[in-house]
Write a structure and sequence with these properties.
Shape: globular
CATH topology of the largest domain: Arginase, Chain A
GO molecular function: agmatinase activity; metal ion binding
Helix content: 25-40%
InterPro entries: Ureohydrolase, Ureohydrolase_dom_sf
GO biological process, one term: putrescine biosynthetic process from arginine, via agmatine
CATH superfamily of the largest domain: Ureohydrolase domain
Largest sheet: 4 strands, parallel
Number of helices: 9
Order of helices and strands: HEHHEHEHEHEHEHHE
Number of strands: 7
Family: Belongs to the arginase family.
Protein name: Arginase family protein
Number of domains: 2
Strand order of the largest sheet: 6-5-4-7
Distance between the termini: 40 Å
Length: 261
C-alpha cells in the first residue's frame, strides 16, 4: 500500500497533503489528520484526540445530531493547515489525531451517559486532551465528569450557546440536552467561580431560569453584549473569570446565527 503524503512539521504527523492527494479522496478523518492508531504505529504520542459522540436521544425537538461527527469530518476536508489570522500552523504545535467515534447506546440514556464517560476516560487518562464532536448537549454531563476526574478538581466552564441548559427536567426526565449543567452543578463538577455562558439569546420560561442560573454560579455574556463590547473585551473578561482553572469549553452549534446553523 502506498504511503499517504502528509504535511509534517515539527515532528508532528499532519493532515494529508491536498496538493498531492485530492481532498475528496479517501476516508474522512477530522481535517484529514492521521488516526490515533497511525500515530501510535509511527511511535508517536497523541496530544489532542478528536472523537465523535454520535448521540441525540436527549433532544426535546429536532433529532439528527447523531450524524454530526460524520458531517463535521466531511466538511473538515476543506481545512488547510495554516491559519493566516494567527500566523500559525496549529497541527504543527501539537500532535492531533482522530480517535474515531464512541460506541453509545442509542436506546437507553443512562447507559449512553455511562458509555460517553467511560470512553472519554480511556482517552484522557494518559494525559491526552479530548475534543468531542457531538451529538446533542446531553453528552456534556459525562464529559464534565471525566474532565473533573482528570483535573482532580471542579473545572471552569465557558459555554457558547443560545440557551442556558441549566433547566431541571423535561417531562420529568433529569437527563436531557437542556439539563446537563444543572446536573453537573448538583454533582459538584464545576468551579462555581469560573462559569460563563457566551452568546445567550432568545426567550426563557420565566425569570426563575435566570435566578437558578445565577445561583449555580454562571455569568452571562449575551449575543447583544458581544455586539456592544466587541470580541476582544469579551475574551479578556473570560480570561479574568477563568484565570488558571482547568477549563472545559462547550460549543453548541445554535450559538451561531440561525441563518447559518
Amino acid at each position: 500500500m502506498n504511503e499517504v503524503p502528509r504535511i509534517n512539521e515539527n515532528g508532528k504527523i499532519g493532515p494529508r497533503d491536498s496538493s498531492r492527494v485530492p481532498r475528496y479522496a479517501g476516508a474522512a478523518t477530522y481535517a484529514l489528520l492521521p488516526t490515533v492508531e497511525e500515530v501510535h504505529a509511527a511511535g508517536g504520542d497523541v496530544d489532542i484526540a478528536v472523537m465523535g459522540a454520535p448521540f441525540d436521544t436527549g433532544v426535546s425537538f429536532r433529532s439528527g445530531a447523531r450524524f454530526g461527527p460524520t458531517h463535521i469530518r466531511e466538511s473538515s476536508r476543506l481545512l488547510r493547515p495554516y491559519n493566516p489570522a494567527t500566523q500559525t500552523s496549529p497541527f504543527a504545535q501539537a500532535q492531533v489525531a482522530d480517535a474515531g467515534d464512541m460506541v453509545i447506546n442509542p436506546f437507553d440514556i443512562h447507559a449512553a451517559i455511562d458509555d460517553v464517560e467511560r470512553q472519554a476516560d480511556e482517552i484522557t487518562s494518559g494525559g491526552t486532551t479530548l475534543v468531542t464532536l457531538g451529538g446533542d448537549h446531553t453528552i456534556v454531563l459525562p464529559l464534565l465528569r471525566s474532565a473533573a476526574r482528570q483535573a482532580g478538581r471542579p473545572v471552569a466552564v465557558v459555554h457558547f450557546d443560545a440557551h442556558l441548559d441549566t433547566w431541571d427536567t423535561y417531562f420529568g426526565a433529569e437527563y436531557t440536552h437542556g439539563t446537563p449543567f444543572r446536573r453537573a452543578w448538583e454533582e459538584g463538577l464545576m468551579d462555581t467561580d469560573a462559569l460563563c455562558h457566551v452568546g445567550t439569546r432568545g426567550p426563557l420560561y420565566g425569570p426563575k431560569d435566570l435566578e437558578d442560573d445565577a445561583r449555580f454560579g454562571f455569568g452571562i455574556v449575551s449575543s447583544s453584549d458581544i455586539h456592544r463590547q466587541g470580541c476582544a473585551s469579551v475574551v479578556e473578561g473570560l480570561r479574568q473569570r477563568v484565570e488558571d482553572a482547568p477549563l472545559y469549553i462547550s460549543v453548541d452549534i445554535d450559538v451561531l446565527d440561525p441563518a447559518h446553523a
